[in-house]
Amino acid sequence: MKYALYYWSGIPGRGEFVRLALEETGVPYADIALTKDGDKKMMADMKSESTHPAFAPPYLKAGKLVIGQTANILLFLGERHSLAPKNDSGRFWVHQLQLTIADLVAEIHDSHHPVAGSLYYEEQKAEAARRAKNLRDERLPKYLGYFDRVLTAQGSGWLAGRSVSYADLSLFHVVEGLRYALPRTMRQLEKRYREFARLHDKVARRPRIAAYLGSGRRQPFNEEGIFRHYPELDI
Amino acid sequence: MKYALYYWSGIPGRGEFVRLALEETGVPYADIALTKDGDKKMMADMKSESTHPAFAPPYLKAGKLVIGQTANILLFLGERHSLAPKNDSGRFWVHQLQLTIADLVAEIHDSHHPVAGSLYYEEQKAEAARRAKNLRDERLPKYLGYFDRVLTAQGSGWLAGRSVSYADLSLFHVVEGLRYALPRTMRQLEKRYREFARLHDKVARRPRIAAYLGSGRRQPFNEEGIFRHYPELDI
After folding, report:
1. For B221, which DSSP code?
2. Are residues A55 and B131, on separate chains, in Cβ contact within 8 Å?
3. How many domains does chain A have?
4. CATH number, domain with residue B149
5. In angstroms, rounded to a whole number, what is the distance separating the alpha carbons of residues A70 and A100?
6. Structure pTM?
7. Can you tell me the ipTM of this complex?
8. Domain containing A140: what range?
9. Which member of A23, A229, B89, B142 lies 3.0 to 4.6 Å from A212 by CB, making a disulfide possible if both were Cys?
10. Using the 8-state DSSP alphabet, how is residue B29 labeled?
11. Are A4 and A15 in contact (CB under 8 A)?
């Protein structure tokens, strides 16, 4: 087993961005969240690591390397498995896009948890209503408009040149997540920004991704993760 | 002129993390924010870029390269100017730390803007009071405790091995910013986490950084940026 992914069980969460990259490479990996007592194993492992500890999951073990932070893991996998261009222009571009996706993901999370991740949604519903309105009216149009312009300018259906990159896989998952969490908002936005359906379908058709999506390894969205469907936060 | 940094004028903001790295390298660079009509120039430049547009400032021009996202710019400068180890173990570690610093910086920003960046603080004071309490009581102790453990484990006073990295320069700026924004909270936290003063002073003593801090190029903190001093959000 070449790689081991450590992440919370029961949600796609940020671990899913790493899973999609691992699945696309076809390299075998252990998904600790899918093993018995996965969370306990991870928490014990996090306590034992003293040289390069992760602040939070996900993190990836690759031989002696321990790599934390989602976008950093993807940077590593992108270099090793050609999920990003090799030249400076392309590899920094893909990473820039990934970090922008990470910012968007954090904003989506905070739309239902604007006060504290450690409090329940029910304890911050009033604040969430205000923040979710800002997400729907300002932030999502800004982010999706940006990625739509990038996809249009590239012309290939991919974010960087003519090949799939880890940023494309991540943006696919964001589209899936937003369609789950805010279906009415997304239906309107996808009428304005037409490149997302194309990117989404191109990723979903890739043989290894299609096999993964149809497998038991792909975990469904739910109201514990980043993308939560609270109808009152949608249009 | 080898590099040009594009960022908003009038605040240190996220541009400051890039400035500190550029200053440490000693390479000449144009700081567009410090030139006449800097914001106008930047906005015109952002509109004209179609291949690798930035979602938001800062971004750096380096010859034909245009690189956005703070941590990505630092990854680039770290490789070019030995502000990070060359080996995989070290370079992914420093980037992991930088992305954790970026998460912390976003949380600090959102403590005074928990609803929307586009609204005034005065329009979200109630929400900010709740979120700032969570920042003081839970998040800052968690983040600072983490970095303190890392510094203690490394033993060198630096976050990665025996040399300064771009993450050290960024953490220095976070310490400066937190001392400005939340002085009473920081006095308490620095009693518990004693490595920060050492790191801060080691960075401040580096000849090029010391020269920069004493120059007119270093912009002061104010209530327009990330680190804002609102006494009611402090202890």
Report:
1. P
2. no
3. 1
4. 1.20.1050.10
5. 12
6. 0.97
7. 0.97
8. 88-206
9. A23
10. E
11. no
